[in-house]
Amino acid sequence: MNLRFSPLTLALAGLLSTAFTGAVQAQNLVTLFEAAKGYDAAYKSAQSQFTATLAKADQGLASLLPTAGLSATANKTSVDLLTGSLAGQNKAYANTSGTLSASQPLYRPANLATYRQAQKQLDLATAQVKSAEQDLIVRVSQAYFDVLGSRDSLTFVRAQKTAVAEQLAAAKRNFEVGTTTITDTREAQARYDLVLAQEIAAQNDLSVKKLALDLLVGTTNTEPKSLTLPVQLQLPQPADINTWVMQSLDHPSVAQARVALDIATLEIEKANAGHKPTLDLNAGFTPTRYKDAYAATQVDTNATSLSLNFNLPLFAGFATQNRIKETVALEEKARMDLEGVQRQVAQATRTAFLGLQSGLGQVNALAAAEASSQSALDANQLGYKVGVRINIDVLNSQSQLYQTKRDLAKARYDVLVGQLKLRQANGSLKAEDLQAVNALLANN
Predict the structure, then answer these.
(1) Domains along the chain?
(2) What is the 8-class DSSP label of residue 276?
């Protein structure tokens, strides 16, 4: 069987081959994500905040533990006697002392609430760093496929330029032999000039998208691996929107709002503690040395103290009552904030699921449109050769075919990113989810 390929097909194949050849030293999605984790300022800021929050949580324990302190005093007094039988003499006294003191709270309900609030910060820190990682996954993936989409667009524009150049040359030849009018040549020239402008725009767009990816991952001249075609794209399992919404109850934003509610509830306990007594155990040890230089005497003493300090608030000018009212209102606010976040996350999950569902439908429709556009172009080229079609029909068919190819490529990338965005929307996105997308990329 003899296979014949048109110059247009060969040109497109050559351009695609060139694009893929450049991916020999390319980086895959997982590699670039790992690079971004060590470079991205927003993610590293979230990690620093995570460390700070953990340290803050440990501070809450201090209110329940004993405190100890050491103090020392040394003074010397000189007295000049001016009258009396000892007039004209000088007497000096020296006094040195040190105190070692310690205090242990025995009953302080406000301190206990403060400690429990600090422990809630651990949950908050975990949710914050999880949210930052999910955001980085989506940003890197979006930038990665933006580059691929822009690179494909440039490839298709160059292939279209080659095809239009061939059509322009054919129109000129036909005009020279008198089989067509000058209109065909001018139409082809106009379309060729337009494609040149599109090529310049596509080159600039690719440069901008690559710079954005470079800035995100902290490397230069990144070259993402291309998607291996054909690729089978499907809805992630389970293919039920309500299941995805139910899973969103563990979303990092929901977790943070839930922690805020718990902290607000404990703040009420702290406010109520303003009416409750406190009890502390205090201990002290104070050695003292007294020296009288005039009488040449020295006295050393050691004083030890142990006490229980009880305090019962009786009246604070209604400050405690108003503080309680404030904390109750703030708890209700935190409760409504949690409800609002849950609704927003559920709505975002539904939107992401439906968007992904629509994207898959677009991929299938555009794949069919690509095949139809190719058939239409072949028919118009044949019709132009036999004289039943004019040049503009061929040019329009070429434009439609390459526009469809660009739209199809972008739709595929949108679906892949959409799968990650769906998991981000319901809070289940993990770094391991990149492996499934990474497996669809070229291995070269």
Answers:
(1) 7-37+108-276+316-438 (1.20.1600.10)
(2) S
